[in-house]
Write a structure and sequence with these properties.
Length: 80
């Protein structure tokens, strides 16, 4: 029989901003992974690697903006 994990043991993201942060982080990580993949081949695909590096930087820039913006959840808990 499989072990049942209680709901409080694995919390799901609360709001859309948390999901956005997770998605942006994943996009940046995947783009950098693909850039490295393109560069590791014997015949390096420099245009492809450059394109993926730019995509990763764009995702990181959006991630920085998402982290700097106040979220709905944090303003509700601070307001009392």
């Amino acid at each position: 029989m499989t072990k049942v994990i209680p709901p409080e043991g694995c919390r799901a993201p609360v709001n859309a901003s948390e999901l956005e942060i997770i998605q942006l982080h994943a996009q940046a990580e995947n783009a950098l992974s693909m850039a490295l993949h393109y560069l590791r081949h014997p015949v390096a695909n420099l245009p492809g690697a450059s394109r993926k590096a730019v995509q990763a930087l764009a995702a990181l820039n959006k991630l920085g903006g998402a982290l700097a913006a106040p979220s709905i959840h944090s303003t509700q808990t601070q307001g009392g």
